[in-house]
Structures are given as structure tokens and as C-alpha cells.
Fold this sequence. Notes:
two-stranded antiparallel sheet; 2 strands; rod-shaped
Amino acid sequence: MPLADTFFCTVIFASSLDYCFFLRNKFKADLGRNMKTKTLSIFLICGVLISVVAYAGALIYLTWPVSEFSIDKSGVFGDSFGVMTSLFSGLAFAGLIITILMQKDELALQREELELTRNEISGQKKELAAQNETFRIQRFENTFFNMLTILESCRADIQYSRQSIPGLSVVDSFSASGKDAVKSIYYCLNGFFYNKSGIGSSRVFKESCLSLDGVDKAYVRFYVTFGVELGQYFRTLYNIIKLIDANFPIEQGRVYSNLLRAQLSRYELLLLLYNCLSSYGDKLAPLVIKYSLLKHIETNQLVEEHASIWPEWLGRKK
């Protein structure tokens, strides 16, 4: 029995050593070192077996000749391996302890690798989010600047002809397009705030146009004539501001609204004010106020009676 126990403990110890070397080399990429480890494991197992055989041979040599072969004598021979049994039992136990400790280290390394992997994935998610945000801004800016080009086209398509003014006696004819047409149309709007009985300095301002309701009625009459020229322009302007508002918080959106405001001439701002004050600008007006598009309006170009009655539209406090 001691001989069998010795052999069993030897196998356990050798297996433990082999597993220890396996764990040690698990994370090494060098194939040559792995082969050396396997070779060393084979040598260890063979060395242990040779030690057992040599020990047994030495006993036989020292006790030769054997005078009697019996079960009792065989038992005595087996008991002589008690020292080796104790030695290899201790080594086998030590091998198991080493295996457990190396498994602990392996688990620690796996947890560390898992944490590094999580951090890397988290970093990739942040990088992907940043890339998506960059692409989103690029798509917005492409749309935004394309719409500014469309707005410029709408401005260029605005036409004005003096013969189109109803109720005024005109001696000579005049026509304009683009920004010049916008300027002429604005001065035509001013005419709707005065009585038709006079022209120039003799005109009498309508008291009703001092109220918001009066301005709305005058602008509606004006829009009947000039809405065909201005309608597409104001609809495009509204959709540009709406696009900004839908994509950014107000502080970030102001970067683009300021660019939009820089594209508007003084007479476009003046017409925009009256459009917002009328029923036609119910949707446009809140966005114009929110992004301060009328911040740089020139009050000296307003109808004198309107220069100071709506300070909130002029970017001032009441």
C-alpha cells in the first residue's frame, strides 16, 4: 500500500506542477517557451518515476538475496517506501496549494483584463458618441448653409414695380429686384400707415396704426399686394430659424442665428418686424424674439410713430 500511495502522490504532484506551468505560460505568446515547459513537465514526471524505481532497486540490491517470497515479506518491502510516500505526499499537497494560489492570480489578472476591456469599451462609446455628434453637426451645417443659399435666391427673386401700387398717382415708372426691391416695398408699407389723401410731407398718420390691431390690419392690406413677392422669402426664413431651434439649445443655436441675422439687410429687418407684429407672423414671432433677430434694427428707419412703442421687439427692456 505505501508503494501505491507513493505512486499516486507522485502523479498528483507531477500533475499539479504541470498545471502550474500551464497557468504560468497561458498568457505568454512565445511558442518556444511553452514547448520548454511541456518538456520540463515530462522530465519531472520521468524523474520521479526513475527515483521510485531506483529506490526500489537499491532496496532489492541491499537485501539480496531474498530468502523467501511471501505476502508478509512483500508487505515489509512495501513499508520501506514510507519515507518516499511522506515526501511525495507533502510535495503533492504543496503542489495543490501552489495551484490554488496561481489560480487566484489568474482570476485577478482576468478581472484586471475585464476592467481594462470595460474601460476601453466605455472610451470607444464616448468616441463614437463624439463622432456621431460631429456628423450630426456636419449634416446640420450642410442643410443650414444650403437654406441660406435658398434664402438668398428668394431675396433675388423679389420684384418691385411702381405701377403695382394701388391708390397712388405715379408720374414715372420704376422697377427693382433683390435688396433694392425689398427697400422699395418697405417704403410702400409705410404708405399703408397714412391716409391716402396726402403724399409726402402732407400725409396724415392713421391713429389706428398706433395699436397692434391697427398695424395688423394695415399689414394685411399691404400683404394682399406684396404677399406674392414676400411669402416665399418669409417662409424660408421661418424654416431656417425653426431648423436651428430644433437642433440646438439656445446658446449653441445663437451661433447660427447670428450668422442668419448677418445676412439680413436693414430693410429686411424692418419688414420682418412688421411681419411678426401681424397675424402672418404668429409662428415666426416667438423665434425672432428668442434669437434676437431684430437686435440690430435701425429705429431711425421706422415710421416715426412706431419707433418706441414696442421696445421688446427692438431688443430693449420695457
